[in-house]
Amino acid sequence: MGQANPKMNSKQLEIIKERISPIIEKRKLMLWDISFFGAASPVLTILIDRQDKTPIAMNEISEVTPFISEAMDQIEPDPFPDHYNLDISSPGIDRTIKSDDQLAWAVSEPVKINFFEKIDGQKNVEGILLDYSDSYIELKNSAEQIEDFPRDKITKISLNQEV
Q1: Are 68 and 123 found together in one domain?
Q2: Is residue 2, in this structure, part of any structural domain at all?
Q3: 1, 45, 113, 119: which could join 37 in a potential S-S bond, CB 3.0 to 4.6 Å?
Q4: Beta strands 43-50 and 85-89: pairing type?
Q5: Which UniProt keywords apply (predicted)?
Q6: Parent domain of 116
Q7: pTM for the predicted model, two decimal places
C-alpha cells in the first residue's frame, strides 16, 4: 500500500471501527484490521474474516460491503470529505497478527515470529501458538518443545500455513 494519509488520525479510525463492528459481528464475522493509505488516490482498507476460523467466502464479503459502505456514508463529521476507495477483503492466510484479540483468535494456529535481532542464533521461529501475555509469546516448535519469546524482541507475528 501507499503512505499513510495525514488527514486520517487514529481517533477517526476508532470512530469507523465503532460504526462498522456491529454490522460485521452481526454476521458472525470479525474486523481484523482497518487502515487508510494514499494521498492522491486514498484507500480505506477493511479486513474481515469469520469468527469461527473457517475461511471467509467472497460472497460473504460482497454481502456485507453495502452495509459497511452505508454506515461509512452516515458518519458525521464525514472523515472522507474527498473521494476515497473502499477496499473490503480477507486478511489472507498468512495475515499479520497485531493485537491481543488477534493473538487470542490465533491460539492453536501455526505462526511465524520475526525478531529485531537474533535469539538463540535465529532471526525468526515457527511453531504452534500456545499462549501469550503482555511479556511473552509461547510456541510449540516442530520438535514438540515449548519455548517462550519476549514480546519486546518481536517485530512481527503472522499466521504460517507452511508449518
Answers
A1: no
A2: no
A3: 1
A4: parallel
A5: Cytoplasm, Ribosome biogenesis
A6: 96-159
A7: 0.83
